[in-house]
């Protein structure tokens, strides 16, 4: 009873934790392998041991991932709010993290406390598949999961099973052999027809691929999505980009470099989107792959590069391509995609090479509209570099976007006062109404987490008396916002 009272007191103290200052969300804290006394002290200082951060991680998941002592982890698991089947990041319970880190003793403890083995994360991976994703080769981890009811042969709705995952991550054949002996067929394919050789190609796992081919697994087949091994190797991977040496190895398997997938993308489209090495694009360009080919969405190789890739790749494509101002079916150019998704250096090089700045996409967004859509507080500095590059081209900040929206309407969802102030300085009307009569104040009244920004907007001249086409004021909309139900919003009454 005394212990329970101590826990209750600690948790009450932790309720005052400031979400931004919660030390239990810091990897650096857990890397020190804190003991129970240290954890208790931090809880008493106001840090919550149960709260989930914006990404869905909590103290227990971070402790497991950073291989903190099981004694400390078990202490955390005793706290109300850290139940054994609690959902964390990507809908993963604690057995996922324990399996991922190969913590057999903790898995045993979690199952004894009632951990549910029939769980799947948001990708519909089982705990076994999640351990396989980490390339774990300790069969004791899989043994305890299987013993407690996790099906080793489970395949998710996409047809992916542990064997396919391990084909990309395993360092040694023995772990694949372990699952083959558990009944998983060596030639299993997912719903698109990709087999273990395809999955090995994604990560460039030449050792496993060579063994699979030696054992008779097909490698020249065209998959249901019309891809071959070149496409798999050019796809993105958590393990990193495949290098030229691996593509040369694949070329020795007599694959067709001109193969196009079901969306009419060739290997250069894939590389431009996912691979950061220009020499790989050069390798296939020299083999007559069309660098100005257009896929079914109207995207050129340059559009993919400008949206996602680095300066060396973009420069290579620019040197070879004749389509800098081509637009896709959405009316987006390389420049508009770079403005929204990529860095200021990519925007600058496109402008230097003659990219048109009068592009308006099908949804009636100008380049500045794309700029606002790509705003992130994490990359403010680069955002404003792009801002200045476009401003130097005399673009009109007051130009209407789709549905009569201004740039302020587009900025509303970002809920960043600094961004709003920057647009106001460019002369954008704070009280402009879109085609439905909605103003910036109306929009933020519907989504605001508290009344602070609304008060700031009113200070800047936002008029609460303006009504939409449906005769609604900002006050009416704020009353519909559940997050404002305990806030004083009388200042919005006109």
TrEMBL record:
PROSITE patterns: ANK_REP_REGION, ANK_REPEAT. SMART domains: ANK. It comes from the Bacteria. InterPro entries: Ankyrin_rpt, Ankyrin_rpt-contain_sf. The keyword Repeat applies. Keywords: ANK repeat, Repeat, Signal. Residues 1-19 form the signal peptide. ANK repeats lie at residues 90-122, 297-329, 330-362, 403-435. PANTHER family: ANKYRIN REPEAT AND PROTEIN KINASE DOMAIN-CONTAINING PROTEIN, ANKYRIN REPEAT-CONTAINING PROTEIN-RELATED. This is Ankyrin repeat domain-containing protein. It comes from Mesonia sediminis.
């Amino acid at each position: 009873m005394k212990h329970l009272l101590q826990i209750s007191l600690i948790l009450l103290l932790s309720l005052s934790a400031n979400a931004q200052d919660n030390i239990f969300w810091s990897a650096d804290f857990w890397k020190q392998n804190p003991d129970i006394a240290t954890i208790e002290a931090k809880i008493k200082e106001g840090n919550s041991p149960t709260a989930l951060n914006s990404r869905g991680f909590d103290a227990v998941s971070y402790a497991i991932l950073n291989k903190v002592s099981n004694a400390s982890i078990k202490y955390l698991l005793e706290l109300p709010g850290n139940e054994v089947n609690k959902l964390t990041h990507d809908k993963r319970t604690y057995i996922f993290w324990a399996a991922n880190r190969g913590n057999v003793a903790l898995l045993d403890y979690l199952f004894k406390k009632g951990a549910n083995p029939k769980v799947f994360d948001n990708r519909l991976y089982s705990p076994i598949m999640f351990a396989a994703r980490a390339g774990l080769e300790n069969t004791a981890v899989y043994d305890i999961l299987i013993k407690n009811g996790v099906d080793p042969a489970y395949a998710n709705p996409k047809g992916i099973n542990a064997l396919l995952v391990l084909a990309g991550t395993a360092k040694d054949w023995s772990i694949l052999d372990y699952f083959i002996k558990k009944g998983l067929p060596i030639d299993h394919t997912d719903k698109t027809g990709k087999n273990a050789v395809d999955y090995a190609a994604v990560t460039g796992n030449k050792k496993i691929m060579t063994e699979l081919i030696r054992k008779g697994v097909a490698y020249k087949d065209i998959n249901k999505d019309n891809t071959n091994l070149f496409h798999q190797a050019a796809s993105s991977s958590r393990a990193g980009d495949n290098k030229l040496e691996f593509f040369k190895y694949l070329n020795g398997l007599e694959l067709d470099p001109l193969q196009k997938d079901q969306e009419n993308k060739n290997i250069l489209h894939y590389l431009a989107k996912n691979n950061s090495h220009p020499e790989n694009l050069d390798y296939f360009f020299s083999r007559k792959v069309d660098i100005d080919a257009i896929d079914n969405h109207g995207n050129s190789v340059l559009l993919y590069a400008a949206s996602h890739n680095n300066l060396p790749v973009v420069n290579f494509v620019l040197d070879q391509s004749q389509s800098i101002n081509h637009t896709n079916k959405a009316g987006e150019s390389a420049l508009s995609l770079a403005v929204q998704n990529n860095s200021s250096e990519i925007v600058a090089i496109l402008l230097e090479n003659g990219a048109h700045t009068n592009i308006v996409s099908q949804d009636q967004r100008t380049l500045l509209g794309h700029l606002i859509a790509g705003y992130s507080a994490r990359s403010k500095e680069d955002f404003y570099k792009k801002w200045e590059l476009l401003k130097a081209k005399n673009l009109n900040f007051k130009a209407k976007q789709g549905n009569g929206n201004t740039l302020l309407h587009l900025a509303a969802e970002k809920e960043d006062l600094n961004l709003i102030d920057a647009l106001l300085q460019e002369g954008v009307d704070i009280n402009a109404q879109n085609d439905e009569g909605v103003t910036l104040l109306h929009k933020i009244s519907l989504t605001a987490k508290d009344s602070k920004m609304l008060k700031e907007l009113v200070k800047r001249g936002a008029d609460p008396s303006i009504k939409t086409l449906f005769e609604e004021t900002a006050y009416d909309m704020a009353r519909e916002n559940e997050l404002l139900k305990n806030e004083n919003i009388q200042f919005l009454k006109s």
